[in-house]
Each structure stands twice: as structure tokens, then as C-alpha cells.
């Protein structure tokens, strides 16, 4: 998932944006029609997994991830199936951007299911 660092409520003020860039890595992108360079925060698979594990432990109030974990493996599995279907449909009928977005949602739900079952990334990596 890519979030622009400007005006992104999850990232907060300039100090938090700088910290997030250090932790998550940086990628520069030129904003169309302006030629201006804007920093984008790019999460990777490991960063997302660490974030989900942190939410499972610290349980921030109002977190959708916490609600998904509390709903249990059956509900999480249904979301994985739903998102997999949306990936397939996007691959058949939508733009690459839409497909990438659907894939990111599938990866999120797969990781929620992994956290819900207590799996680690290494448990999956052993089978790749």
C-alpha cells in the first residue's frame, strides 16, 4: 500500500513522517502535471506483517484489524476468498492500478489470517 506523506492521518506531523520514511524506506515520485517531487511511504510485506502483529498485541481502540482478528478465522477466511475473487475479476476486467489495489487487499487479509492463527512469516517462507 502506498500512502502519500502529505495529509495522511495515519502518519501524523512532519516529525512522524520523517520517522516513518526512515523505518519504511523512501521512494520519490513525480506528481503529474506539476513536476514536483513528492515522497511516498511504501509498505512491504514484512512491514505490514509487523504492523498487524503490533495491533494484535496493543489492540488500539477502533482498529479495523483488531475487529477482524476478534471476528475469528472463519470470518477472516471468508474475506480471503472474497478478495481472491476480486483479484481475479480485476485481472480480467480492470486496470493494472485496480488489480494492484485488489492484490494489496488480498495480501492484507492473508496476513490478518496468519496473525489470527499465530503463524509467522518464516512459517510460510519455508514453503516458498
Automatic annotation (TrEMBL):
<dbReference type="GO" id="GO:0005737">
    <property type="term" value="C:cytoplasm"/>
</dbReference>
<dbReference type="Pfam" id="PF01503">
    <property type="entry name" value="PRA-PH"/>
</dbReference>
<dbReference type="InterPro" id="IPR008179">
    <property type="entry name" value="HisE"/>
</dbReference>
<keyword id="KW-0378">Hydrolase</keyword>
<dbReference type="GO" id="GO:0000105">
    <property type="term" value="P:L-histidine biosynthetic process"/>
</dbReference>
<dbReference type="InterPro" id="IPR021130">
    <property type="entry name" value="PRib-ATP_PPHydrolase-like"/>
</dbReference>
<dbReference type="GO" id="GO:0004636">
    <property type="term" value="F:phosphoribosyl-ATP diphosphatase activity"/>
</dbReference>
<keyword id="KW-0067">ATP-binding</keyword>
<keyword id="KW-0028">Amino-acid biosynthesis</keyword>
<keyword id="KW-0368">Histidine biosynthesis</keyword>
<keyword id="KW-0547">Nucleotide-binding</keyword>
<feature type="region of interest" description="Disordered">
    <location>
        <begin position="1"/>
        <end position="21"/>
    </location>
</feature>
<comment type="pathway">
    <text>Amino-acid biosynthesis; L-histidine biosynthesis; L-histidine from 5-phospho-alpha-D-ribose 1-diphosphate: step 2/9.</text>
</comment>
<dbReference type="GO" id="GO:0005524">
    <property type="term" value="F:ATP binding"/>
</dbReference>
<keyword id="KW-0963">Cytoplasm</keyword>
<protein>
    <recommendedName>
        <fullName>Phosphoribosyl-ATP pyrophosphatase</fullName>
        <ecNumber>3.6.1.31</ecNumber>
    </recommendedName>
</protein>
<comment type="similarity">
    <text>Belongs to the PRA-PH family.</text>
</comment>
Amino acid at each position: 500500500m502506498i500512502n502519500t506523506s502529505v495529509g495522511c492521518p495515519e502518519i501524523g506531523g512532519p516529525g512522524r513522517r520523517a520517522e516513518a520514511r526512515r523505518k519504511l524506506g523512501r521512494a520519490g515520485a513525480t506528481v503529474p502535471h506539476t513536476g514536483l517531487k513528492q515522497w511516498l511511504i511504501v509498505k512491504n510485506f514484512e512491514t505490514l506483517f509487523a504492523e498487524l502483529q503490533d495491533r494484535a498485541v496493543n489492540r488500539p481502540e477502533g482498529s479495523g484489524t483488531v475487529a477482524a482478528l476478534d471476528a475469528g478465522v472463519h470470518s477472516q477466511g471468508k474475506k480471503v476468498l472474497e478478495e481472491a475473487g476480486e483479484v481475479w475479476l480485476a485481472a480480467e476486467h480492470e486496470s493494472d492500478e485496480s488489480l494492484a489495489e485488489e492484490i494489496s487487499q488480498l495480501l492484507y487479509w492473508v496476513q490478518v489470517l496468519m496473525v489470527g492463527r499465530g503463524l509467522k512469516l518464516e512459517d510460510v517462507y519455508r514453503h516458498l
